[in-house]
């Protein structure tokens, strides 16, 4: 019994010494330890995502012929509608090319798009993030914007070999600038995530809205990225203003909440826009503790 | 057997992955399915102290790896818990005591994780008390309900590895 007590006391002393050493250790060692445990879990996350894909495949394969033919009919109708849209877009493209030629404006291809599947989602009061199945091996770098179509999903905060972590628009660590629909003077507003309530819908806050701004009648005002700061390309959609705007305590500006334009917790895949050249936001991210 | 803790960690990992899946499914509620503390109870009854310590540290680091909390906060808490439990095995003598220990350890570890997360949070949380209460309630329930299946898996793995059974009156 005494031996057991002595052993326990020795273990507590050893733990105290280890805690002191752990605190004094260079952060690179701690980061290496974290990376090792992330990489240990990465194969399981990949397996999880792929088994989900397989389950979806078999679920679709087990549908009856009647169901499939009904779905085929629906698809044919949608295809017809889309063809009309494609033609309209082709007209727009031609016009775009013509206007560019007129202004001789050469838009640089600044981003490389990497499509990635979502492996898991994780949220708490202080973060809302997803893990995607692409990482450093696929060219993803910290700070890269993550989008779905023309909608901003979030920003890459940590990159591992085969997985990356993405802070969603509603995550408190997320910040960017935006323009409001209906604001002719293009005032810049600030968007940042809000710590979520339990069981509540995650939202972001839109602040520094000018006092004289009024929302477009009969529709929700959309919020777009400005393209300033070099992280997000301009005119990507961030979401809609939630209901009305309200004055801040000081009263110089108004605030509102932002509803993301997509259900961020039901995304299956996203595109990561990796800048071909390092931007200032990315350089800042490299100094972050939790890469 | 020296590597028993590592093999036990691999045997326990599916439960941790299952908890991650449940967290994934509950993502819109901002609640985390926390079972790391529960996974420590059965091994602390049978493994040698140093093996229990290594297992506890690995469990903690696995949870921390994908979450922004200070490095080692949870792992070192679980190590302290494993030293305490493996030094006071009479506390884990029967199933009701184990269930009680699972609830307490899981709840305590969850509290440490929650406080660590708040410490490095980029913004203050809204309605913190309500969220903490819900999270701790979930951790306590999951800790108690999850002990039996997790301990069964771990005991089966330890039996196969030839780890001696827990003494009736430690």
Quick overview:
The complex is a heterodimer of chains A (291) and B (170). With 291 residues, chain A is of the alpha+beta class.
- How many β-strands of chain B, per DSSP? 0
Percent in helix of chain A: 25-40%
Q: Report the radius of gyration of chain B as a whole number of Å.
A: 16 Å
The helix/strand series of chain B, from N terminus to C terminus, equals: HHHHHH
Number of strands of chain A: 12
Uncertain segments of chain A are 104-108, 287-291
Largest sheet of chain B: none
The oligomeric state of the chains shown is heterodimer
What is the overall shape of chain A? globular
The largest beta-sheet of chain A arranges its strands as: 1-2-5-4-3-12
Overall pLDDT confidence of chain B: 89
CATH superfamily of the largest domain in chain A: Rod shape-determining protein MreC, domain 1
Task: For this entry, give a set of tags.
heterodimer, A: 291 residues, alpha+beta, Thrombin, subunit H, 6-stranded antiparallel beta barrel, 4 helices, 35% helix, globular, disordered C terminus, B: 170 residues, mainly alpha, 0% strand
Characterization of this structure:
The complex is a heterodimer of chains A (291) and B (170). Chain A has 291 residues and is an alpha+beta fold. Chain A folds into 3 domains: 2-56, no CATH class; 63-107; 111-279, Beta Barrel (Thrombin, subunit H). Helices cover 35% and strands 29% of the residues of chain A. Chain A has a 6-stranded antiparallel β-barrel. In chain A, strands 6-7-8-11-10-9 form a 6-stranded antiparallel β-barrel. The longest helix of chain A has 39 residues, at 65-103. Chain A is globular and about 85 Å long. The longest helix of chain B has 34 residues, at 128-161. Chain B has 170 residues and is mostly helical. In chain B, α1 runs antiparallel to α6 (128-161), α3 (49-65) packs antiparallel against α4 (73-87) and α4 runs antiparallel to α5 (95-119). Chain B contains 6 helices and no strands. Chain B starts with a helix and ends in a 9-residue tail after the last helix.
